[in-house]
Design a protein that fits this description.
alpha/beta, 6-stranded mixed sheet, Uracil-DNA Glycosylase, subunit E, 8 strands, two-stranded antiparallel ribbon, binds uracil, 253 residues, 39% helix, single chain
Length: 253
């Protein structure tokens, strides 16, 4: 069987096995090993009994140029930003990477040491795991867009502070507006809470279709969390199966 398989498919299977994830099979094939998508809840419910309002996007007058910036202006604004104290300790800003017309947008928390050094999101160990997950989903890193809520590394990889998140938020909002992704995946608590303007625990947010201003949003665990809690890789896989199902349904006539 393996001889008949093309190389990318073989690698995908090897990755999935290495991740301990049941493989995604084409419809009609090997039904026993297909990861079953979690049924999507309808509407905008955040968790059973909790209804998410559409997040209120606060735009202050000082962000006017960011609000209407094109990619060049936005990148320049980010790279010269001194709005919070993180600029003092960063090596460089970490803007975002990938296809600017992507269907899928993955949003993480903040750069770590590797990202601060290289200027690109998710290039460290968590990034390698994200790459493996993307590959397992049949996606290439260059075809999705990857960004963070925070564009500068918090020293010592501490949690981003609310003030830092709110100062950086206009940049992410503008990235989303420019990309117009068909679906957003929020990786971890900070991305989920910042996008949804909620403090509902991540475990209650995942496993359902949510919405960011009308764009479907799926919440899942952060790859760095998965490195510490590999048993939850299965849950991430289920969340991404749901995301794929949501996207496929949108593509149906
Ligand atoms: N964790 C994140 O949230 N983002 C990165 O870019 C790297 C690690």
């Amino acid at each position: 069987m393996l001889e008949a398989m093309n190389a990318p498919e073989m690698y995908r299977r090897q990755y999935l096995d290495a991740l301990g994830i049941t493989r995604w099979e084409p419809r009609g094939g090997a039904a026993a090993s297909v990861a079953q998508p979690v049924p999507a809840t309808s509407g905008n419910s955040i968790a059973p009994g909790i209804v998410a309002s559409e997040p209120v996007v606060l735009r202050s007058s000082s962000n006017t140029s960011v609000d209407s910036a094109d990619w060049v202006a936005l990148e320049a604004a980010v790279s010269s930003c001194t709005k919070c104290c993180l600029h003092a300790t960063r090596t460089q800003t970490v803007f975002g990477v990938g296809n600017r017309s992507a269907q899928w947008m993955f949003i993480g928390e903040a750069p770590g040491a590797d990202e601060d050094r290289q200027g690109e999101p998710f290039v460290g160990r968590a990034g390698q795991l994200l790459n493996a997950i993307l590959f397992a989903m049949g996606l290439q890193r260059k075809e999705v867009y990857i960004a963070n809520v925070i564009k500068c590394r918090p020293p010592g990889n501490r949690d981003p502070q609310p003030e830092e998140i709110s100062q950086c938020e206009p940049y992410l909002i503008r990235q989303i507006e420019l990309i117009k992704p068909k679906l957003i995946v929020a990786l971890g608590r900070h991305a989920a809470h910042s996008l949804l303007k909620t403090e509902v625990p991540l475990g209650k947010l995942r496993g359902q279709r949510l919405s960011y201003h009308g764009t479907p949003l799926i919440v899942t665990y952060h790859p760095a969390y998965l490195l510490r809690n590999p048993a939850d890789k299965r849950k991430v896989w289920d969340d991404l199966c749901l995301a794929k199902t949501v996207l496929e349904k949108m593509e149906q006539p």
